Amino acid sequence: MVNRIVKYLAKKNDSxxxxxxxxxxxxxIMGILLPIINILGGCLIAKLPIQQSISMYYYTxxxxxxxxxxxxxxxxxxxxxxxxxxxxxISVITGVAGLGVAIFPCFSELVIGQKxxxxxxxPETSFIVHLTCAALFFVLLAFTSIFLFTQKHKDSNLVTPxxxxxxxxxIVCGILMLACVLGILVSILIxxxxxxxxxxxxxxxxxxxxxxFGVSWLVKGETLFKDK
Length: 228
What we know:
Blueprint lengths: L1 H44 L17 H17 L5 H19 L19 H26 L12 H30 L2 H7 L1 H20 L8
Helix pairs in contact: 1-2, 1-7, 2-3, 3-4, 4-5, 4-7, 5-7
């Protein structure tokens, strides 16, 4: 009887581990797909030029996809438990920041003088909230990748060769996300609107940050460099 209970609990624990890994993979895949599908959907379906940022797709035919995917990723992050209390807190705050990115639209000259978003704010006010949430979103994702994903398992002091490779990937991805956030903020401060639009620098940096985020979570989900 005891052996059956132990086997049942072990099987249940293995199932939970698989679910967490699948969740991490799904989060990673969605992060990578967000810029790709927005750009392709805008160009191929609506025949639109490439926008200056991913957030600008809120004002295109891809609005539902952009908002929907941000909600899905954010809700996954909010419900993601992690390994400890800090992991849980960071994940929840990251998810809430992601919801802010979706709920509060960025600024667009198309809506000057209008109210935007669920809370019907001015475009300028909404953009401040949007930018703050976006920066917090990527900074916390970078923190998770650099400091939380690199931790050793609490039940083992062993660091396998593949775990060392994964840690390097986590750190590189986190640094890239931080560099992209800094690059976006600097670009907004020093470049004119025509320069921002023509260079697509924000779109490029956002795409790199999302790709880094996606790779980090795919590796955490053991899609890449899984221990044998």
